[in-house]
Design a protein that fits this description.
The complex is a heterodimer of chains A (450) and B (160). Chain A has 450 residues and is an alpha+beta fold. Chain A contains twelve helices and 19 strands. In chain A, the strands form five sheets. In chain A, strands 3-7-1-14-11-12-13 form a seven-stranded mixed beta sheet, with helices on both faces. In chain A, strands 9-18-17-16-10 form a five-stranded mixed beta sheet, with helices on both faces. Chain A has a three-stranded antiparallel beta sheet with strand order 6-2-8, with no helix packed on it. A five-stranded mixed beta sheet of chain B has the order 2-1-5-3-4, sandwiched between helices. The chains are: A alpha+beta (450), B alpha+beta (160).
């Protein structure tokens, strides 16, 4: 297609949703209200790790406006995993924790209470008595992997299993042989903290009984069909009985990808026959909703005096918290990108999804990749310093080209690193050496390729 | 405690509402009067998304018991535009992409409205200062600051 036929590229186009935003006329999820709407609030674990021995609802039930409590026994398929939809196993997370089982993070849902008003729901939640046998908690990944650590999962160790291995592995070339021949070894350890996405609009939904036994669910999810399909599984109702309406999201950044509110709100609507609003408070959004995983990335690189990185061994620990949610997928993305946009002929990756008693982590902008880029680029600076080589030159020397094979065996087809760096150098007024200016991402055997 | 009757002027309209003690202005505007441009981000005075004008001054409506603003003039974003006319501030937010998800936008616009009423040609620092209590998680603030600066310039042009 020639440029003349493009009607949008290169043009300034008004956003279709702009007018609704600047006039305040947009209808966000909680801007709706329905006659008879109930408010759902959650009794949550006050501790990081405990066995639930009993629940006493007697005082809560006396609160004026109390309508219905939901417990594990009300949930048709109470144990689930969000990525079960794409074949990830095992199912591990309770929608509501049953008596006799364990709560695994502070804030884990135990009982849901529907009431006529928000105040009544809050009051009733405060009056539920929990009998908890507190258990030792593990809050650090290295501790969780040490012998004798408290076990978080129901299968006996603290790692997610990838096809029979306790980590996501990449094996490409022979790193040990390459380390032996390398002129320098450069090692680094990089740690990141959990980050809450903190959208200004908190997570939530309203489930409304509709005609013909269907339920209409207004939700601010970022993943409408994930929410619909998981709700269908957890509540054991056909998907065609669930009508999910989304689209207007007041900020998400990955924080609204998990399926947390819709199954409970829909269940409460089924049990009461009334519309049910389940909206996180700001406190819940900050404490309970999934964060970005904290990571500990340990890198060992073998480097030649001319700047070529010839071998890389990476061990990465991802803290998924009490449940894996989207983290196994995040780790697979990490493993595929552990070499970054560089060609490294020998790569070894062990990336662990580590369970702790922290708030579950999940998606956040570029998850799996963002923190890798932080670690890899600081590592590039360390290498440049160690070799006494200009960092720009180091990046060009190692940049991948089309036709290169990445460690996970993908052939590179869309490399633009070299051209991007050339444009960036021009923008910041950095004069590149003539041989770097001449380079292209073309395959190495061709002109411009190395 | 018994509910009370409160009279207010909301965007030029006289309204009478019944509210339980300590009901917030935010709750009355959203739940009784349907003014859903007044957003809920935290209900603890932390995000600014519920900002309205009370007698021309920007205030966070989530922290105001409605009894405390009885008899006063309340202005929300709904009052700024008509079906065929946008306030210059709204026009500037639209033209400068001063929004992304849109959730903080009404609060930001009310801050801008109050600022430009008092100070028609603010410096960039004064704009930043005025926005100190309002959180946006999408834009990084620059297009919002640009929009308010553009609205101020447009206002100066109009009065010249």
């Amino acid at each position: 297609m020639s440029e003349e036929t493009l009607s949008v590229v290169g043009q300034s186009v008004a956003r279709s949703d702009g007018l609704g935003h600047v006039t305040g006329r947009d209808i966000y999820t909680f801007d709706r209200t329905f006659p008879g709407m109930l408010h759902l609030k959650i009794v949550r674990s006050p501790v990081h790790h405990a066995r639930l021995r009993g629940v006493d609802l007697s005082e809560a039930e006396k609160v004026p406006g109390f309508v219905r409590a939901l417990s594990a026994a009300d949930v048709p398929h109470n144990v689930y995993t969000i990525l079960g939809l794409i074949g990830v196993e095992p199912e591990e997370e309770f929608l509501l924790t049953p008596v006799g089982e364990r709560v695994r993070y502070k804030g884990e849902p135990i009982i849901a209470i529907a009431a006529d008003t928000e105040a009544a729901a809050i009051d009733a939640v405060a009056k539920v008595r929990l009998d908890l046998e507190e258990l030792p908690a593990v809050l650090d990944m290295d501790d969780a992997l040490a012998p004798g650590a408290p076990v978080v999962t129901h299968w006996g160790n603290n790692t997610f299993m990838y096809e029979g291995h306790n980590c996501r592995r990449v094996r490409f070339g022979d790193v040990d042989a390459a380390f032996a021949k390398a002129d320098y070894i450069v090692e680094g350890e990089y740690r990141t903290s959990p980050i809450e996405q903190a959208p200004v609009e908190t997570t939530g939904c309203i489930a409304v009984p509709a005609e013909n036994g269907r339920y209409t669910v207004y939700t601010n999810t970022q993943a409408l069909y994930f929410s619909l399909d998981n709700t269908s599984i957890i509540l054991q109702v056909p998907g065609n009985q669930l009508h999910f309406i989304g689209g207007m999201v007041g900020g998400g950044f990955g924080g609204k990808v998990d399926v947390i509110v819709e199954p409970l709100a829909t269940l409460a609507a089924m049990k009461t026959g009334r519309p049910v609003r389940y909206v996180f408070t700001r406190q819940e959004e900050m404490q309970v909703s999934s964060t970005r995983a904290s990571e500990t990335i340990r890198i060992k690189d073998g480097v030649m005096a001319d700047g070529r990185i010839v071998a890389r061994k990476v061990v990465n620990l991802f803290d998924c918290g009490a449940y894996s949610r989207q983290t196994p997928y995040s780790i697979t993305k990490f493993a595929a990108n552990a070499a970054g946009p560089y060609f490294i002929p020998n790569v070894y990756v062990d990336a662990y999804c580590v369970y702790t008693n922290r708030t579950p982590s999940s998606a956040m902008r570029g998850f799996g990749i963002t923190m890798a880029s932080f670690a890899l680029e600081v590592q590039m600076d360390k290498i440049a310093e160690k070799l006494g080589i200009d960092p720009w030159t180091l990046h060009f020397i190692n940049a991948y080209h089309n036709g290169d094979i990445k460690p996970h065996r993908k052939v590179v087809e869309d490399a633009t690193l070299i051209e991007t760096m050339q444009a960036a150098a021009e923008l910041v007024g950095h004069e590149l050496a003539p041989e770097l200016k001449r380079m292209t991402s073309a395959p190495r055997s061709t002109e411009g390729g190395r | 405690m018994a509910s009370v009757i409160v009279n207010l002027e909301v965007s030029g309209r006289a309204v009478e509402i019944i509210a339980a003690p300590l009901t917030t202005l935010q709750s009355v505007l959203r739940n009784q009067l349907g003014m859903t441009s007044v957003k809920e981000g935290c209900r603890q005075g932390g995000c600014g998304s519920c900002t309205v004008l009370v007698d021309g001054e920007p205030m966070m409506s989530c922290l105001l018991p409605v009894e405390d603003v009885a008899g006063r003039k309340i202005t929300t974003v709904e009052a700024l535009s008509t079906p065929d006319h946008l306030d210059p501030i709204q026009r500037a937010f639209l033209d400068n992409n001063g929004y992304q998800c849109g959730y903080c936008t009404p609060g930001m616009e009310m801050i801008a409205k109050a600022l430009l009423e008092h100070n028609p040609s603010p410096t960039r620092d004064e704009i930043v200062d005025a926005l100190a209590g309002n959180i946006c998680r999408c834009t990084g603030y620059q297009p919002i600051i640009d929009a308010i600066a553009a609205a101020a310039s447009a206002g100066q042009e109009a009065t010249r």
